[in-house]
Amino acid sequence: MAPTLTNPLVLKAGTAWADAWRRCLAVAPEAFRDDRVLNLWNGTWQADGRTLPATSPVDGSPIAGPPRLDAATAHQAVRASLDQHRAWRHVALEERRARVAATLDALTEHRELLALLLVWEIGKPWRLAQADVDRAIDGVRWYVEGIEPMVEGRTPLDGPVSNIASWNYPMSVLVHAVLVQALAGNAVIAKTPTDGGVACLTLACALAAREGIPVTLVSGSGGELSEALVRAPEIGCVSFVGGRDTGAAVATAVADLGKRHILEQEGLNTWGIWNYSDWDALSAVIPKLFDYGKQRCTAYPRFVVQRGLFDEFLAAYLPAVRTLRVGHPLAVEHAEDPFPQLDFGPLINAAKAKELGDQVTEAIDRGAVPLYRGAPAADRFLPGQDTDAYVHPVTLLNPPPSSPLHHAEPFGPVDTIVLVDTEAELLAAMNASNGALVATLSTDDTATYDRLAPQIRAFKVGHGKPRSRGDRDELFGGFGASWRGAFVGGELLVRAVTHGPAMERPPGNFPSYHLMA
């Protein structure tokens, strides 16, 4: 139980949105105006687009919104990026490497500001916000140090790489990809996620543009900009990270056009329990699986449990889930206190929180059994603050087949449990979403793991341990509907955005073939 506080919580000193905004204006005045962020295209920061209002998921207060371009302006930005690409692809590798390295030094200098922007814009606790920034920097440095053999005998694409990514990892996914693509000789285009991260990405791109990286940053609705960012003939490759519905539309477009593509999509990642007894190990990992409220493509929202072990599973699971700490990521007892240690803060917005809450209510109404429902702790929030975007942990047994929680990733702190009696049922339940990015099977018997793991339709399968997207030389991709196009990670990310030998077939999940390596 959390200690009783004698004083109401206050905002940690120097961490208000106004403080972060003033620092952005001082660090990159070319990219920020008094009341808005700018788009970056044709090598110039442009005060165009219609700025939409935005609020922070942390407390519902106003923050900078995206300056949304129209389709015609987006096409102009793409054509200008092609001009940059044609020049950049001939820049010597050593110069490209020096400019990317200088960008990394600048990102390192301003890592705390980038992390603070992530807290306000997408609700990440401080520890996870810093980790997002650091993973981007450290990951790209690995490529800077070892790029020569990765590009030997290869050439940049014929046009820029267009990046469309979800809001949850602006730095370690989007900025990381952009800088590696540029290092490989391509101009790069990034679309800011609609739901958050525009100021963080604007600052990161401003620091890159100062070092001569040919980056374009634009905002707008996916529907209006897709013709330019996906279908335009100038685009050399489309890199997408997001949900299956949008990803399917992108996949159709790039397949029709024969365009190079990397499409990472969601899947229902599952954790199976079969003939297992190391409950202390499971209990230790449960809180870590809730990092960032399970708003991750590699989160584990589904446990598939052997019925005969259900009582032992609950004895390990429930005490662990009760330890989770949820609250305002910047609220402290005294203004100079260190940042609070939280497992997660808000979801991305109040609308998502309501949607998830409605799904839980509907699932229970249709027969799911609520095993755990967390409650808010007043001593983790500021007095009177808006908490509409916060969802506390929920665990449901046997969500009905009619519920989205039965077959889709909730992207929030909701666990579902399905009980099974046979290995065939175990595999069927673990493969419920036609492909996943990661999965784990906890079993005491190595032979059982070796026999069942290859039948689990996930790109990475752990033995009693969670799997992650990975960094540096670790490959990443997906099976089924969780991935389309080229795999990434290590040298495969570079291969995906460069031309190699004639008739080369990149490892990936394509309509005509599936190649692991």
From TrEMBL:
Residues 47-491 form the Aldehyde dehydrogenase domain. The keyword Lipoprotein does not apply. It comes from the Bacteria. InterPro entries: Ald_DH/histidinol_DH, Ald_DH_C, Ald_DH_N, Aldehyde_DH_dom. SUPFAM superfamilies: ALDH-like. Signal peptide: none annotated. Pfam families: Aldedh. Keywords: Oxidoreductase. This is Aldehyde dehydrogenase family protein.
